[in-house]
Design goal:
The protein contains ten helices and twelve strands. The chain has 276 residues and is of the alpha/beta class. The strands form three sheets. Strands 2-1-3-8-7-6 form a six-stranded mixed sheet, sandwiched between helices. A four-stranded antiparallel sheet has the order 10-11-9-12. The chain has a two-stranded antiparallel sheet with strand order 4-5. Helix 9 runs antiparallel to helix 10. The chain starts with a helix and ends with a strand. In the N-terminal section; belongs to the MoaB/Mog family. It comes from Ceutorhynchus assimilis. InterPro entries: CinA (IPR050101), FLAD1_M (IPR056596), MoaB/Mog-like_dom_sf (IPR036425), MoaB/Mog_dom (IPR001453).
Length: 276
């Protein structure tokens, strides 16, 4: 009986260790964003999509690794998609989806995966309903890479009017900010998954960053798994530096935050989110 009891304890212990190990070994999902458009490169239109996506993807526990801006060129799009697709779990493209001659994202992505463009019946009907005709330009958005998938579902159980189109790990979004935001807010959590979540804390100081370098270095040394960033604020009477602490472990982030508050000079902290 004693032997069996000890054996059960050992098994439970091993299972517990294995579970912890599994959780620790889980990697953060990575993403790369490809912004497509000559108008962005010429400065005619300001890119707001990548900033919005960075924040939303971060909230989903996905780490943004790189943002690149490229022209409306089929070969350039293809080359960038190939590189990003190999490096990151998810690739998001914005722009280049529409009825005009310079909307060539579908062509570029199809070339990257060596697939032809084919007319999708669902998209054909959507384009007919929207444009009220079947002209070649009206049908342009209905031709997508052959193995593409259409994503209609929203987190509320509804359906997107125009689905997101993806192939392998590449998800193609329109460049119009209002349309992109609508799709991400309604379906982003269904499209992009991560086993991790980011936990962050902020501290606002009335000292410039060069006066708290020693304290920051000490926190970085003691908590190597916590990302520490310091951002100066010029010409602001409320604070002079914002310090952020972030990791995928809530307890570790909390401890690093407490340690920073302990190290900083008395009365140097204007505001912090200890109770958040």
């Amino acid at each position: 009986m004693i032997t069996r009891y000890v054996s059960r304890l050992i098994i439970r212990k091993l299972c517990h260790i294995r579970k912890i190990s599994t959780e620790t070994d889980k990697k953060i999902a990575s993403v790369g964003i490809i912004v497509i458009g000559d108008e962005i490169l010429r400065g005619e239109v300001q890119d707001t999509n990548s900033a919005f996506l960075a924040k939303e993807l971060h909230n989903l526990g996905i780490e943004l690794k790189k943002i690149t801006v490229i022209p409306d060129n089929v070969n350039t799009i293809s080359e960038e998609v190939i590189e990003f697709s190999k490096k990151y779990n998810y690739v998001l493209t914005t722009g280049g989806i529409g009825p005009t001659h310079d909307d060539v994202t579908f062509e570029g992505v199809a070339l990257a995966f060596k697939e032809p463009l084919v007319l999708h019946p669902d998209l054909k009907q959507i384009c007919i309903q929207f444009y009220k005709n079947e002209n070649p330009s009206s049908m342009k958005m209905a031709y997508i890479p052959k193995s593409s998938k259409l994503h209609y579902k929203t987190k509320s159980g509804g359906k997107l009017r125009y689905p997101n189109v993806s192939i392998q790990n590449v998800y193609m979004f329109p460049g119009i900010p209002e349309l992109l935001k609508k799709t991400i807010l309604e379906a982003g959590s269904l499209l992009f998954k991560s086993d991790k979540k980011f936990f962050s804390k902020c501290v606002y100081c009335n000292l410039p960053e060069y006066e708290i370098v020693t304290e920051l270095q000490q926190v970085v040394k003691e908590f190597p798994d916590v990302q520490c960033g310091c951002y100066p604020k010029l010409f602001d009477s409320s604070y002079k530096a914002k310090v952020t602490l972030e990791s995928c472990c809530e307890e570790l982030t909390r401890k690093a935050h407490a340690r920073l508050l302990e190290l900083l000079p008395a009365k140097s902290v204007v505001k912090d989110d200890t109770n958040d």
